[in-house]
User: Fold these one by one.
Assistant:
Number 1:
Amino acid sequence: MSNTKTYWKGLPQLTNDPEFVKHADKEFVEPGKNEDLGHSRRDFLRMMGFSMAAVSLAACEAPIRKAIPYANKPEDVDPGIPNYYASTYINGGDYCSIVVKTREGRPIKVDGNGLSGVTKGGTSAQVEASVLSLYDNYRLRGPKAGDKSTDWQTLDSEVIAKLAEIAAQGGQIRIVSNTVLSPSTKAVIERFKAKYPTAQHVQYDQASTYGMLKANEESFGTAFIPSYDFSKAKTIVSIAADFIGTWVSPIEFTKQYAATREVSAEKPEMSRHYQFESILSLTGANADYRTAIKPSEEGTVAAQIYNILASKAGAASLAAPANPIEHVEKAANELWANRGKALVVAGSNDKAIQVIVNAINTLLDSYGNTIDASRPVNFRQGNDEQMGAFINEVTGGKIGAVIFYGCNPVYDHPKGAELGAALKNVALSVSTSSTEDETASASAYKAPDHHYLESWNDAEPKKGMYSLSQPAITKIFRTRQAQESLLVWGGNGQADYFEFVKENWKNWFYGKAGNGMDFQSFWDKCLYDGVLEFPAEPVSLTFKGDLNAAAATLSSAQAGGYELVIYESYGVGNGSQANNPLLQELPDPITKAVWDHYVTISISDAGKLGINNDAEGRTQKLTLTVGNQKVTVPALVQPGQKQGTMGIALGYGRTKVGKVAEGIGVNAYPLIGMANGSLSYAVAGVKAEKTDENFQIAQTQIHQTYMGRTNVIQESTLEEFKENPKEWLEKSAKITDWEKKVDPSAVSLWKGHDYKNHHWGMAIDLNTCTGCGACVVACNVENNVAMVGKEEVINRREMHWLRIDRYYSSASDAPMNSKELEQAAENPEVVFQPMLCQHCNNAPCETVCPVAATTHSSEGLNQMTYNRCIGTRYCANNCPYKVRRFNWFKYHHNQQFYQANPAMNTELGRMVLNPEVTVRSRGVMEKCSFCVQRIQTGKLNAKKERRPLKDGEVITACQAACSSGAIVFGDMNDENSRISQLLDISKPEERPYGIDKKIGNPRAYRVLEEIGVKPNIFYLTKVRNKDREKKAV
Amino acid sequence: MQVTSAIREPLITGGKTVHDVSEDISRQVEGKPSTLWKMAFGISAVLFAYGFYCVCVLLWEGVGVWGLNKTVGWAWDITNFVWWVGIGHAGTLISAILLLFRQKWRMSINRAAEAMTIFAVICAATFPLAHMGRLWLGFYWALPLPNTFGSLWVNFNSPLLWDVFAISTYFTVSLVFWYIGLIPDFAVIRDRAVRSGHKVRATIYNALSFGWDGAAKTWMRYESVALILAGLSTPLVLSVHTIVSFDFATSIVPGWHTTIFPPYFVAGAIFSGFAMVLTLLLITRKVFKLEDYITIYHIELMNIVIIITGSIVGIAYITEFFIAWYGQVPAEKYAFINRATGPYWWAYWSMMTCNVISPQLFWFKKLRTNIAATFVLSIIVNIGMWFERFVIIVTSIHRDYLPSSWSMFYPTMYDVGEYIFTFGLFFTAFFLFAKFFPVINMAEVKSIVKSSSEKKH
């Protein structure tokens, strides 16, 4: 049956509607033209995706921080590339030739200038810290008349008018300053004096050596201080002269001294240093033989040494007390044996002692050998008598006008309080201090000087040795250079001190040293080098002092009371830089105290006075009565302090000083006495009474001994070293292999890292390290290390990446238990050990970090990635050297740390931060990076010039700051590098892996060798030049 | 299959019937809270609130509000962490190992012990979190998550990372185990609610019981899961504290670097855990009148575990000292001399007294069956175990290799506050649990009631 039936879907199909036929093969109906929705599903998804992304992007927009490019880029300033300028640090008589590092026009770091014949590239803590003083919030913003701000024209017209009026009446005019090193400044003052004939220039020093000047005048006819050369001395005897710490020219002396303390297997020779002193000074801490004496015995020591030498030389002896003092005879005999290679110095400001010391040095033939009289130094020119007379004149109402040039006698002169009170009766008083300090506050006019980094200047630290200062930044505030002020007031119109200095140099030196250059080239060269030095002219000296007269005036021990030694603080110095937190938080090299002022007392006196000074620094205050002066200060029990003596530091108790140093300690200047016409920094008959007031001194180290741990400190004596240089290596800890005992470094489960290119390492010589702390400040400045303030130091949270561990040890053969080992002896030996990240090859910190925030570089660095760190502190717990520092709080942009850390909490202070180093945030760990930013810069420079990196191109901040050259940093893969030479590095046969180096230097050891972390820092054994009978434990 | 010895003392006293069990346990959940409960809960909540304030200050200001310093980087934080983790261990031991060993006496205590484990682990976890300098990053950076930081990955060498895995595994397994055990009991409460017409309660407990139907097949699966989870938990009892001990054992700090730590820590954990279970159960027993379910026999058995583990811990302490002397490593030797005679001697001798001497009192049957003595000693043991961790952590690092860095640790109110926070958290959670969840495993306990045999007397 055929089926012709048709099945149709709808009428259109049945009727074969053309519209239907057209779309018949399409399964779905397509929308007509007018029905077009416009968007497909894909479009929808696309748009939704876009809007989601746009919304979320808009929500996470970062805040915009504007960086404004140079509209006109200054020549020589490339963003990101530092510029260096040679300049000179001058603070009163303290001098250092420096190189200033600036970034985008901001000075951020000060290094030593190696071209200087005086400081030879060395610096000190104060020099390193001075860059922050430039950005001190307490600096005056502009001139002031009374309490009101004014402008320079008004100030000038008023000052000139008053000066003219006073001069017309014949009133006395005085310019008061500390030692002026600058010949141009002196010329300015001469001009001023020429204009006002009644004007006189009075110089004084906070740490006066007027007694020495007078003694030399008496002994040799001229008042001068000679150059000393410790590097030529085999026997050094110092009678209370802290020549490494504060005395005359410590940067220079440190360098010279260190040269005599370097010992190697090839040169097993070193100087022997005797120190006779009352407080344990930095110099005393470095001495081979240290005898604690009372200040009143200093003359006795000098006279006894003289007598022994005189008897050998056949000269007449002096009348001297015969009480035996330990080591005097031994020292004198050695001095005599080393005539021509011996040096005796005394720190006393008593003319009589200095005359005897001059006589000793004459007998020892020191002049022309270890003492260079042809290069008299200008560091201390202060005249105590003149200054005393000036103050009497002021209080007597005899002075019409006084201009204080860069000095602060109201604070730092013993009679400062009287002076301050009398100043309001003086018709015109002007201070050029750059801060509103005690003297500026008491003066009617404040004419603030530039900071030295903003100034032009010159200096003559030693006769015939000159240096230049140039501004590294344009003036920050409306200040004016004091010399310019003096020129203006001296009637020189709108003078330009820069032109003045240049003109002087043209007149004074261009002829002598021009060598056919045109003047501009000569000047540019001087400016580039920073220094200009002429050969010395020889002089001959004949001693003609009256020894018997000197001996007769020697002060003798007075009965009753304590003897008080007043010394300059190692941190804040004489107090002029007290508002600098870098110095306030620099641990005192000996006491390790920060932010605090205290009186040091001996262990036995503490018992007598009932002072209980525990390990945490908790103590009681003492009231000291000196004449009619009374001060109340906390007592700190100090090993090494002579019984019956006490020590108190200058530099504290500032009253007009700014937030940082507010309310710290008392002013010790008024306690200074007089002896033989000069200021005496040791006073007798001091009464001390314990008060009920408790106090806690903040110290960065609260445990004093190294507990006999020879894996931490290795000591030897020169004699032992000569006999067997490898003694320590043989005695060092061994570990057991299957069969035998081997060196710990010989066995490891790890192959270690392979350093194909560089292998950075460091060597630190415990013998030449004096413990001064310049490296600590340099490290803080270079690496933006936060200062945390006293409270946080008491909480043991200081942030220093580099610290100097100071350990006391005593010579004893008896085995001691752990409790006995904890106690320091009455007169201990001292050893300093700079401690920083050891950059272990098998670093225990690296394995424990859960997020791999601390890792090992291909060049041996242990690196810290701050932005990966989550702050578990496991690394710090597992660090055997305890060098890791945790950001317990947010130390920047935090009002809580405003006082302690202005460098991160004020707009002005932040200018000092090193842009190459991240400021760490709260909750992350930080530590020494071996100045990785410097390594990278060095490598990049070499790469740009398509050459291998040269040794010495990369130096760490601590190495650069170290005056004694104790720190050597370099590439241990480079056979010719200094560090490879020093350590005598070769490849070991037994473990030929990259990390393993065979060290040939018998003095080299690694701290905690036996735990196998294989640090990249090597220490060179401390060698003491002592006789055999005693042996350190 | 129920095999009961006729000689053995019944585990549940008071002639309870199966129905009595449901009644006694569910009553706590269904009834209004007692005044005693309200007081206890109130105190816990106050502690919690105060502690929470301290935690907020900590997170706002930084870890510096604690008393830690450059030398002592961990103190109360990790002490508390280890202490709480240790406490947790008893719960797992009771529910897993004792289940595998068919120790039926565990049935009336395992529920509370497991709850304790979970809350203790939560408390413990707050410390590694809070002690981080940057918690807001650390909580996820410490996990091996794929990320856009390039090839940045966690450090599998770090014991802290092992901790992350150990603790999170432990927490997950414990939580699942505990919850599965709760399901039949929730169903009981649901059924009772349905019967008594409490609609809301019925809905909630129905949801919590995942619609448990009580079918034989369901029971079979339930039993299998319980056994599997017990098998999974058993190694955890040993591994978690072993790994926690690696935080110390793998370091190079003298006093931490010790191979004895894993067994010593595990024993210590069980020791402190049992003590904590006792403390809690003695309170719960009193508050909820469960004397028939948690009997003197239970307490005595737990006290025996305390003697054993306490003695193991004591031997470990002595061994450490012996090895320090025998090894002749100067730093190690000093670390132990310093423990016993240094500035923290009091902590050391508190530990020795509480952990080694006091549990030995349980050799006397009179004492180990005495409720008051047990309660006091259980607290003393936990004080001792806290000191043990403090001694290990603080006295080891406060004086390690370089004497220049030696320092002391002084706790601040925030150290204490954070500890209080966890107590608040723990007890608040525990009291909420005790009120709203059946504190005793009804399903299991019903299998050991011997009502028929007792009724004969």
Note: The first helix of chain A runs from residue 11 to 15.
Number 2:
Amino acid sequence: MTKLMTKLRIAVLFALPVIGFVLLWEIFSRSGAIDSKLFPPPTVVAMAFAELIKSGEIFRDTGYSVGRAIIGFAIGAGLGVFVGTLTGAVKVVRNAFLPLIQVLRPIPSISLVPLAIVWFGLGEVSKIFLVTWSVFFPVWLNTFLGVTRVDPVYVWAASSLGASKRASLLKVILPASLPLIMGGMRVGVALAYMNLVAAEMAGAYVGLGFRLEYGHMVFRIDQMLVAIVMIGILGALSDRGFTGVVETLLPWSQTKKR
Amino acid sequence: MATGQGHVKVEDVTKIYDPEGANVLAVEDCSFEIKPGEFLAIVGPSGCGKTTLLNMIAGFDHVEPKGKIYVDGELLAAPDKKLQPGPDRVVVFQQGALFPWKTVLENVIFGPRNTGKYQGSELKEKAEELLAFAGMKEFMNDFPSRMSSGMQRRVEIIRALINEPTILLLDEPFRALDAITKAVMHRFLLDTFDYTHKTIMFITHDLEESIYLSDRVAVMTTRPGKFKTWIDVKIPRPRETRVKASPEFIRLKEEVIEAVHEEAIKAFQRGEREMA
């Protein structure tokens, strides 16, 4: 009972400021204090939302955006871990690739948006490319740091316990680096959304970024706000989901000392 | 490598770190033997090369520029023969090296999983038997971070023992423990030694501990490390805590303290010279 009460209390404390903000927005917008064309009240936004649900467009946009984010993230994170492990563990690979990666890494991926459109067109490839690019670097960097800075005592213990170099890499060095790798991925999730929206705004036929840009062109600020709210919700949900995945995958890194 | 008797012979070993650069003479002309089933404790001032000797037997440090290390008559390490670490010479480290991402059981079976020594249900039975011996069976599905440092140490020793090493190399394993936990660990290690009769090389700063646990105490000089004195500990086993109050124990302790004290003073004076 008390547990339920605590949960309820947390929910109320969380919901109150949000409800308050929405209410104030509604009042200000309706009162004429601010231009309701530029700041349509939440009820109008909700109607735009209903309209987009009815036409199915919001599902299509969200579906496409999420799909691109997931595919791009999977490719970028996979490549990041793979290249990070190789550059961290194999000297020849490190010497060959490190300078190149260090030159490419500081380039803001948003600056690649126009290039990606020229190279890959307005279709899926350019969006996935940009997401992949933005996820790759933080994941690569953290994997590289994790692999190169693993506590040597673990590697000694592994070799003392008969692990081959390969076993030591897969069963000791990589798991020991996982907390850092996961940190890199979490940054990657945030960057993935940022770059995806930028790419969709610059040129797309579908997606939340496209919906935002389309609303801009036809002056449907209510629809723009729907897209922005959806992007915000998705970002928060994926971060929360990611933390959940980490907690499930790395129970040992959360446990406290007795 | 087959499990042997556990006879270790270190012959005329000199170790220089970074010969091209800093050129640190860590150990000089060290020769000693550990008999099969003997518990040897090595004490000496900080930085005297105790851990260097252990690391050379373990295969973490290369024997150079001279010397030979034999285990059970087989030449394992020499300047022209680089030794790889292996489960026949398992090390338990002073800072603790249980893998935090593995449960207790997964840690314990890590070695045999690599070498194929035991497999399937046999492996699990063996692991459970040893964990039960250590009083850790009920915690076998817990992660190490959920356990006290004493429990972690016990698991680490079990993780080493399951490989049936020829020699167990213990590098100040109880250094970071409080006095009460240390006493419990001494009991555990004495029981383990009585139970397995493995050859043990035990490095420590704690002089009382060295006498209480071992068959022989080697006192090393300050750097470059050499052997100064060997002291036989003829206190019968199994040993109880009360032997620490016996006249024989007190006599041995005085002997060890005197030998180590001389070296500690030398090390301290040299430290002052180096600071000046």
Note: DSSP finds eight helices and ten strands in chain B.
Number 3:
Amino acid sequence: MFADLPLLSLVIWTPIIGGLLVLAAGSRNALEAKALALLVALITFLLSLPLFTSFDTATAAMQFTELHPWIAAWSINYHLGVDGISMPLILLTTFTTVLVVIAGWEVIKDKPAQYMASFLIMAGLMNGVFAALDAALFYVFWEAMLIPMFIVIGVWGGPRRIYATLKFFLYTFLGSVFMLVALIWMYLQSGSFAILDLHAMPLSLNAQILIFLAFLLAFAVKVPMWPVHTWLPDAHVEAPTGGSVILAAIMLKLGAYGFLRFSLPITPDASQQLDWLMIALSLIAVVYIGFVALVQQDMKKLIAYSSISHMGFVTLGMFIAWRIADNTGSMQGAGMGIQGAMVQMISHGFISGAMFLCVGVLYDRLHSREIGDYGGVAHTMPRFAGFMVLFAMANAGLPGTSGFVGEFMVILASFKANFWFAFLAATTLILGAAYTLWMVRRVVYGEVTSDKVAALQDINGREFLILGVLALMVLLLGLWPAPLLDVMRPTVEHLVQHMAVSKL
Amino acid sequence: MLDNLHNVNIAIVAAPLIGALIAGLFGGAIGRVGAHTVAIIGVAIAFLLSLLMFNHVVVQDAGIVTHSVYTWLVSDGITFEVGFLVDKLSAMMMVVVTFVSLMVHIYTIGYMAHDEENWPEGSGAGRNSYQRFFSYISLFTFSMLMLVMANNFMQLFFGWEAVGLVSYLLIGFWLKRPTATYANLKAFLVNRVGDFGFLLGIAGVLMYFNTLDYAAVFNAAELHKDLTMSLWPGAEWSVMTVICILLFVGAMGKSAQVPLHVWLPDSMEGPTPISALIHAATMVTAGIFMVARMSPLFELSETALSFILIIGAITALFMGFLGIIQNDIKRVVAYSTLSQLGYMTVALGASAYAAGVFHLMTHAFFKALLFLAAGSVIIAMHHEQDMRRMGGLRKYMPITWITSLIGSLALIGTPGFAGFFSKDLIIEAVHASQLPGAGFAYVCVLLGVFVTAFYSFRMYFLVFHGKERFRDVHHGHGHHAVHEPHETPWVVTLPLIALAIPSVLAGGMYITEMGFGNFFGAAIQVLPQHDVLGQLAQNYHGAWGMVLHGFLTAPFWLALAGVVTAWLLYMKFTHVPALIQARLQIIYSILEQKYGFDRFNDWFFAGGSRGIGRLLWQWGDVRLIDGLLVNGSARTVGWLSSVVRHVQSGYLYHYAFAMILGLLLMLALFVIAG
């Protein structure tokens, strides 16, 4: 019954229109606006559920498609659809948005309606990015989505928010421009903006390499990959808690999604030619950033660096396919790498979101993110400490939590490509545990270090609800990841087959 | 019938898990008695059902029980499952784990009875600490069972890390103590170094076997024995050697083999019941169990076996030396555990897997006993752990005393006691082994016997005999401050007695089958050319004969010499140890520094990592990337921000929302117009 509704349009436009209504309501009554925001977020989440329950796991084709002409002169269409790669990311977006609305409930005192509205509109636009099957439409959503994020950081951010916003803007904007040029060039060659047409479009190696590099600039900034990652710690530190959650849980995934939707299928030969670069950058992210995370004194910075390190697994898993083929003579294992990357994306959405919420809980009480200002929190906030240790363990990739699944799969797959890839990737077992648990030791354990810590109140029902739901998701995905894998299997298999065929 | 057994397996792991969840999540509501009752019932169910499985698989010899419970995930044609394999090896492990765990659960009622004293006033974490402790040890039992009952490498790794997690939580249980949270972080990280190798080993298995299922891997092992892989140009390694050494690195972490042993002595920061359960009887033996489980793989690499032999031998002897100079009662037992783990490892390296696992079993009983007895002494001494302030406790604590003596006699290998059979078997097996390194290992394990006897009876005499030194300590407070030590309550002494029985009997009962018979059946596979136990079996004439022969062999006389030396030094000529210490200052300080491992690790690994981190951050991120690349456009940023500053941030969102609104209107217009 749901399949007849234009579900994708609904999950895009419900939060956007709802966000505008919240904005309108906000000038009259803040509580009313917040309640409306929560309602909109919940409706959007419920609307997105049939995407999962009615999803056909037997096909790699696009589902829930909608196609309307938009700008006929340039053959740009309002073309939507999801496959096993994009559908889970839409669910992650709608889910996270509900949590962010609840998380900001009492905390945001300044212009709460506008705050909520920003997140709702952002959610709709991000859903649009994941659902768009037309490159021009994709680009519009891709750029538009940044505006609410700039607002969130710029208005509700910390003292250096202008610097952080500008750095964020410059990085992402410069990257996106190159992507736009590449898309327009391909349109001029092929006469189509349809992403699936671009997948099939023949391209010379030189053209592919230029297009690949243009995409790389856009996507690598978003992931972010070393060395274009330095905007992320600044953005996180200045962003309000909700902004950090969305940034880490969803926005970083957009870059990785771009690699899967554009780079790998449109430029397979260039991806093969340049996979050494991608693998090297990924491994640098895992190891280099792991060491950098170790010495951070600011909890948000630490988690931001940890995010970059974990995203290294995502890009590593995506680009080892041809090395596996070289080493073992078949592409078997490449699918595991890509699926591992996907699982890592979803899992990182839960875990990093939860970690930022944990820091938010502390920040709301003590107005400090410095590790040194805490110590012995377990004595005054025992329930919070339980959650914090759980999410820290998940961040360290403990089996039984979602953090393990993706890393495990990517390490298994990369061993097939090269022993040393797996060796370097697996250092995260040590580094990830070191920086996360060392932070836990200094923040949660020990004696109560100050009167401020002694006065801390444990988490309230609202905070318990958010962290509890995330804890359930982290455990569920860790103990039973099969449903997620089943959803993406045909799509990933199709992608691997597509990658194996040269366009030359 | 078989379906029922499958349900039994599920119940075995579910019972302690449910106990842990109830005690942990609802500890406040059900109170202390409620928490320890559910936890003990859960573990008791697991123990009884484990006996049932043992009966089916071992006593009735009705075949192994293996089944999948659910599919964890399917990727790229490879199915990862959660499933159980109960064969003779796992059945024995299940019984040992659940039995020791049950004893420790009961003991904990007494040991943690006054745990509120260990927490600061008003600490939220201290509110239900008693219940939380029970939750953790039940969770540990669940994790350990998942580990030993696994039928595939994925689940093995799951259990492997899960026991590590609980170990982390329990070492740092008294979380206000900096030493405890230092120790648990250290334990977790050192174990992660081992897991790093272990995971790579598993990845290697998957690459070459395309499955992680034990049975499928072991059946195909033979086919892969001549494969090689290139680790770096010009270095062709046998695939089996690479995989086995990587897997063994995992065992080195979990079973605390040199140089990854450093976490175990510090883990004594945890409450004593978990030292007995986790850091002596069960978790630390997981590495031994794992290698025995993988015997079809390890048999194919003599290089790996030699490596194991040498690592084990070094651990067995040199960790024993460290036990000699400890004054903390728990640390003596901890170093003893390290040394005994070395013995087990040596057995594995000599392809005498059965002997290693046999020693694992007897050791679980007598070492859990020794730890719990040490804990009983600690209770009586009001949490004093320094043996120099004990002495003469024999007459105050008769049960603790006699059970400790039994445990010590078993540990040093007194003929007839459980430890004698398993340890003698290891020594003989190493003697018979032809692998490179076996000669060195033999010398180490033989000398180790003297060392073991010496530190064990040094401890025994210092605690239970001689002058009642605890009376001297309190002089400052006036003599009425001396608490008369007295025997601990029955919940503490009952487990001591229950563990003392198998510490005596388990050796003689099982030596024929486990040592020389085919107790483990197909679970352990040994190639004919490595079968040292098979060779020894030719000269074996029953347990009684072995005991009688035991009095004539070198290990017995070495052990006796150790006991006599301890008696001379700590009972007879008590001024001599100080003289020796003064004369051999260099050796003493080397031992006191624990060969410098901790210092080196702190300096090189901990300090080095932080140094690299700071370097990469300050020079890489801040100066190079941000300084040169980004803020090369710093002027741009400065200019832009000066522009933005003119736009009052209060109005910024108006502009931005207006922008979005416009964009959306445009979109809508095109859709409608189109």
Note: The two ends of chain A are 44 Å apart (CA to CA).
